[in-house]
C-alpha cells in the first residue's frame, strides 16, 4: 500500500495562499487545507502548531515578496513611501491576504525585514531614539488599515459594487437638505469610498510623514 505524500512547508503555504485568494481567514481551516492537499490535518500540524501560526506564515511570505529586490533610496520619507507602496502592491495582487496580515501579523523574516527598514528610515530622519518606536507603530497601524480597507473593496464582485454604488447615489444625491444640509450641499462632489484609492493612500501617508517631520528637533 502506497503511503501518503509528504508535503513540504512551502507547498503547504502555496496551497494555503491559493485557498485564501477565494475565501477569507474566518472560513479558512486546516481541515480544508488538508483536503485540498489530499492528506489529513495531523500531517499539517507537524509543520504548524495551529491555524494562526499557519496564517502568520502565509502573511510573512507576502512581506518577503515586498522586500524582494528592495533597495533603500532617497531620504527617510522617500524610503518609507517606497516601502509602503511595495506593500500596497503585493497585497493588491492577493487582497484576501491583507486582512490576514493586519489581524495576525507575522514574526517571520519578511516581517523583520519590513520592521528593520522602517526603523532605519525613522532613525535617519533625526528623531530621537526614544520616539522612534511610537512613530513606527503609528506608521504600521496606518499602512495595515489602509491596505486592508482597500483590499476589502477590491474583493467585492461587480454586482456587489454596482449595488453599493446605487446605495451611495441614493444616500448622497437623495439627501434631504433640511435634515442633511452639509451632505446636500456637497453631494455633487462627494466621492465613493473606493474612488481614487491610490491618491488617497499616498496623501494620507504623506500627511503622517509630515506630522512626524514636524516633531524632529
Give the SSE order as H and E letters.
HHHHHHHHHHH
Share of residues in helices: 55-70%
Number of helices: 11
Q: Which structural class is indicated by helix and strand composition?
A: mainly alpha
Subunit arrangement of the protein: single chain
Molecular structure report:
With 217 residues, the protein is mainly alpha-helical. Helices cover 68% and strands 0% of the residues. It contains eleven helices and no strands. The protein has helices at 9-21, 30-37, 41-44, 51-67, 76-93, 96-104, 109-124, 132-154, 158-173, 181-186, 197-214. The longest helix has 23 residues, at 132-154. The protein is flat. The relative contact order is 0.10. The mean pLDDT is 87.
Which characteristics define this entry?
0% strand; 217 residues; mainly alpha; single chain
Brief rundown of the structure:
The chain is mostly helical. 68% of the residues lie in helices and 0% in strands. Helix 4 packs across helix 6 (96-104), helix 5 (76-93) runs antiparallel to helix 7 (109-124) and helix 5 runs parallel beside helix 8.
Amino acid at each position: 500500500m502506497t503511503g501518503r505524500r509528504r508535503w513540504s512547508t512551502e507547498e503547504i503555504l502555496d496551497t494555503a495562499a491559493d485557498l485564501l485568494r477565494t475565501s477569507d481567514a474566518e472560513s479558512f481551516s486546516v481541515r480544508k487545507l488538508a483536503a485540498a492537499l489530499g492528506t489529513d490535518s495531523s500531517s499539517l500540524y507537524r509543520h504548524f502548531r495551529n491555524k494562526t501560526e499557519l496564517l502568520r506564515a502565509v502573511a510573512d511570505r507576502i512581506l518577503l515578496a515586498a522586500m524582494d529586490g528592495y533597495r533603500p533610496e532617497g531620504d527617510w520619507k522617500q524610503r518609507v513611501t517606497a516601502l509602503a507602496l511595495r506593500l500596497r502592491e503585493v497585497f493588491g495582487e492577493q487582497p484576501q491576504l491583507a486582512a490576514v496580515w493586519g489581524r495576525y501579523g507575522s514574526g517571520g523574516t519578511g516581517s523583520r525585514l519590513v520592521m528593520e527598514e522602517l526603523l532605519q528610515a525613522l532613525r535617519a530622519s533625526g528623531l530621537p531614539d526614544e520616539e522612534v518606536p511610537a512613530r513606527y507603530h503609528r506608521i504600521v497601524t496606518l499602512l495595515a488599515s489602509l491596505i486592508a480597507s482597500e483590499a476589502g473593496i477590491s474583493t467585492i464582485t461587480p454586482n456587489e459594487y454596482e449595488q453599493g454604488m446605487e446605495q451611495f447615489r441614493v444616500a448622497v444625491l437623495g439627501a434631504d437638505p433640511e435634515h442633511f444640509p452639509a451632505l446636500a450641499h456637497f453631494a455633487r462632489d462627494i466621492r465613493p469610498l473606493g474612488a481614487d484609492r491610490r491618491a488617497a493612500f499616498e496623501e494620507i501617508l504623506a500627511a503622517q510623514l509630515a506630522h512626524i517631520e514636524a516633531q524632529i528637533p
